[in-house]
Amino acid sequence: MRMPRMSETYDVTQIQQRWLPVWDELAPFRSGDPNDPRPKKYVLDMFPYPSGDLHMGHAEAYALGDVVARYWVQQGFNVMHPIGWDAFGLPAENAAIRNGIDPMKWTYENIEQQKASMRRYACSFDWDRVLNTCDPEFYHWNQWFFIQMFKRGLAYRKASNVNWCPECQTVLANEQVVAGACERCDTVVTKKKLTQWYLRITDYADRLLNDMQQLEGYWPEKVLAMQRNWIGRSTGAQVSFQIEDYPEAVTVYTTRPDTLYGATFFVVAADSPLAEALAAGTSAEEDLYRYAEEVKKASDIDRLSTERKKSGVFLQRYAINPVNGERLPVWASDYVLADYGTGAVMAVPAHDQRDLDFAQAFNLPVRVVVESGEDPAETGIATADDGPHVNSGPLDGLNKDDAIAAMIDILSQTGHGDASVNYRLRDWLISRQRYWGTPIPIVHCPDCGEVAVPEEELPVRLPSAEGLDLSPKGASPLGAATEWASVPCPQCGADAVRDPDTMDTFVDSSWYYLRYLDPHKTDGPFDPDLAREWMPVDQYVGGVTHAILHLLYSRFFTKVAYDMGLVDFTEPFTRLLNQGMVVMDGSAMSKSRGNLVKLTDELAEHGVDAIRLAMVFAGPPEDDVDWADVSPAGAKKFLARAWRLAGDVASQPGVDFTTGDLPLRKATHRALHDTQVAVESYRFNVAIAKAMELVNATRKAVDSGCGPTDPAVREAVEATAIIISLITPYTAEDMWARLGHQPPVARAGWPQVDPQLLVADSVTCVIQVAGKVRERIEVSPDVTAEDLQDHVLHMPEVISALDGAAIGRVIVRPPKLVNIVPA
RNA sequence: GCGGGUGUGGCGGAAUUGGCAGACGCGCAGGAUUUAGGAUCCUGUGUCCUAUGGACGUGAGGGUUCAAGUCCCUCCACCCGCACCA
C-alpha cells in the first residue's frame, strides 16, 4: 500500500483553477483562421435565453454537444462550435416591470453571468463568435431580412382574429398556443381581432414538406412526423354552392368530394364574416350575433373539450347542391373553423363524425352514400371506410378513390369545382405589442401606406426604455415613444409614424446560425462565401421543445435565403440530436414541485467533470435523465482512478509503444476504436463504458501485469486522457500534464488505431448441442471451419452431451460458434 | 381517434449482419488495508432448483430458424406529439 502523497490526491477544485486560465490563453477552439488547413465542421448548440446561471438542462445539453465538437477536433477538424444569446423576449421585460430595471441592463448582466458560468463549465465554444440577438448589430439584419421579405410579398399585414394572451397582453403565433393556453404563462388564450404582420410561410408549405426527404434518417423520426403533422397537407376538392336569394356562391373545401350526394346540410364558421353576411337581413341575424359573441368569449380549451355538445344557429338560408339541386339548410357553428379551408363545409353526416354529431343534435337527416352495412343514424358512428357508393347517381358502384376522381371530373366539367390542396399550416404571425424586441422597420404614411425603411437607414434602433411604460396594455410601448415614432415618410417626406410593434423572437433564431459565420459583419447579415464553406450545420443539438416552431421557421428562412441566392443549400441542419430532459423522480424539475436540483451546488460538490460525466453516462442522449439515477460520486471515483493512473506511468513521453505489452496494447486500440464508433453513432454512454474498461485493464496491468514501466501503460493512459477529454476536459488536461505533455490535450489528436491490434489472440467459441450452449473453447480467430468442426466433434463433452444421438447437422460459424443438431 | 416511440436484473443501461443476454456503472453483500472512512483495493451479485450440476429468463401469446432481445403475426402496458383541420 502506497502512502498517499499530496500530489496523489485528485483535487477537483485545484485542477479546475489550474486549467481554466491556461485555456483562455491557448484558445484551442478558435475556428476563424482563414488559413487553417483543417477540414471544416459546424457543430451547433441551440443558444440559450440569458436566464442567469446555468441549470441542469443546460448542463446536459451543452455536455452532449461538447462531446461531438471535441471529438471532431481530436479527429483533426476545424470545428466551429459557437455560442450566443437569444436575448430578446419577455422575461427581461417582465423583470423590468416588476423591479424597475432597464431590460437592456437586466439582459446584459444575465448574459455576463451565464457566460462566466458557461466558461467554467468548459464547453469548447469559440468565444470569438459570441452574438447577442439584442445587439443592434444583430437585429439590424432581422430588419434587413424583414424588408427583403416585404419586398417579395412574403411579409404582409392583415386583420384577423388572433390568439391573444390576456396576461402577456400580446398576440401569440398558433405555435405558441399550447392546449389553448399561452406557452409562456399558461393563461387561457382568447381571440382578438387585430391587424398584424405575417410572414407567408404557407407559400413554402410544399417545399417544407418535400425537403424533409433530405432529413430522413438524420433527424429524429418524431420531429419529422411532428413537422409533417403541423404542415398538415391534405388533398380534396373545392366545391362551389349557390345560395338561394344570395348573390354570391360559397365555396367549400372537402377531402371527400365523393360523398357530395350525401350532403344534407351546410355549415359556415360562426365567427366568420361569411356567416355575418349570410345572416344579414334574415330573421337569424340577432341569433347569430348572440351566438358569435358567445363563441368568441369561449376559450379554445372549452372549444376543444371532446365532451362538448355541438351548437349552432340556423341562418334561414339554403344552399343548392350542385350535383342534384337539393336544398341544404345553412347553419353557423363553431365546429367549423373560420381560418381553415374556406370557413364553410358541406355536411355529410353519414360519413363524418362531426357532421353526424351536429345532425343528431339538431335532428337533421342522415343519408348513406357509401355502403358499409352499418347505419350511422342508428349507431351514432359515422363511417369513413372504403365501399361501393350508393344513392350517388353516376358514382353508384364505384369505390372511394374512383368516386373521388369521378366527382372531381364532374365538378370541373360543370364548372362547380376542382381538385384542391389544403394545409393546416397558417402564415406566421410575427408582430408583438411589446418593447424588448426588434422594431419592425416599416413607416406608416398617410399617403404612401406601408413603406419600408431604406436599408441604409437600418438598424431602426430601439429607443431607450427610460420613461416608457412597459406594462402590457395591448399596444406596443414604442407607439408612446413619440419622438422615436414620428418620422418623415421615406418616400414622400410627409409626416408619418414608425410601426410600433416588435418582432417575435423566433425571427432571431431563424437565422442566427448564419450570423455566427461572421458575427460582426457590417455590410450584410452574413458572408455568402463563408456560408459556402461552413454551412449547412453538420450537427445541431437541442431540446425537442423546438421540434416544430424554431426548426420549421429556420427551414423556412433558409429556403427564402436560397431563393434570394444567398445560400446554395435548402436545409440548414444536416443532422439533429434532440437530447432528453433532466427530471427528478420522474417529473420535470421545478421550484414549485420542490424537486429542483441546483446545478451550482452539484458543481461545487462534485466538480464540473464529474457532473458532465455522470450526466452523459446516465443513458442514451435522447432519453430523459432522472437525477435520482445520476451518480456524480461514481463518476468522480472513476475520474480519480483514471487520474491516479497518470501518476503511475513510469516511462518517458515519446517512448516507443510498439515494444509494449501486447494484451494491454490491444485493449487500448480496441477502446479507441470502440469509442470512436460509439461517439459517431451518438452512443456516448457506451463510449464512456469503453473508457472505463480501458482504465480497469490498465489498472490491472500496472498492479499485477506488465508493470508501470511498460510503454503500453503510457500508451493506454495517454489514450484514456484523450478519450475522456471529450467529456471531462479538466481531468484529461491534468492527466496530460502529469504524463509530461504540453496543453491542450484537446488538440492532442486522436491516436491512430492499428487494425492489427484489433485482432484478438483467441476467441471464445461457443459449442451448442441442439441450440443449447454446452461448452466453450478458446480458438484462434482464423481457425477454419473444417478444423473447428473436426476438433469439436471429437470433444468428450460433446460426445457425452449428444448422449448417443446421431448427428443430424453441424452448423459451423468460425471462429465464434458451432451448433450440433442431433438427427 | 391519428401519428411517433418504449418495454431487458434491485436501479440506469449494454448487446454489427439473427450467433455466449445482462458490457459498463449505481446499489447491495463479503473481505483486505486503515486511528478513521462517504478513501483505496479485491471478490461476489438475473431467477429458481434436488446446487463443482441443471432448469428458466429480454411486456404476453404464437410463428419462422440449427439458432430470436434482434425477423414476422396477434395482443397488453406505458410515454410523447397532434387532435372538431371538413
Averaged pLDDT: 90
Strand percentage: 15-25%
Structural class: alpha+beta
Global morphology: globular
Individual helix count? 27
Unreliable spans are 1-7
**Secondary structure tally: strands:** 32
Our Rg estimate from Cα atoms comes to 34 Å
The main sheet comes to:
7 strands, mixed
End-to-end Cα distance, whole Å, is: 60 Å
Task: Set down the secondary structure blueprint.
Blueprint: H1 12-26, E1 40-45, H2 56-74, E2 78-80, E3 84-85, H3 90-99, H4 103-120, E4 131-132, H5 136-151, E5 155-165, E6 170-172, E7 177-178, E8 181-182, E9 190-199, H6 205-210, H7 221-231, E10 234-243, E11 250-254, E12 265-269, H8 273-279, H9 285-297, H10 300-304, E13 313-320, E14 327-333, E15 344-347, H11 353-362, H12 376-379, H13 400-414, E16 417-422, E17 428-429, E18 431-432, E19 442-445, E20 449-452, H14 482-485, E21 486-488, E22 495-498, E23 502-503, H15 506-509, H16 512-515, H17 528-534, E24 539-543, H18 549-563, E25 576-579, E26 582-584, E27 587-588, H19 599-606, H20 608-617, E28 625-626, H21 632-648, H22 662-680, H23 684-704, H24 711-724, H25 729-738, E29 763-769, E30 772-779, H26 785-793, H27 796-802, E31 807-813, E32 817-822
Helix pairs in contact: 1-25, 2-20, 3-4, 19-20, 20-21, 21-23, 21-25, 22-23, 22-24, 23-24, 24-25
The structure holds one RNA strand of 86 nucleotides.
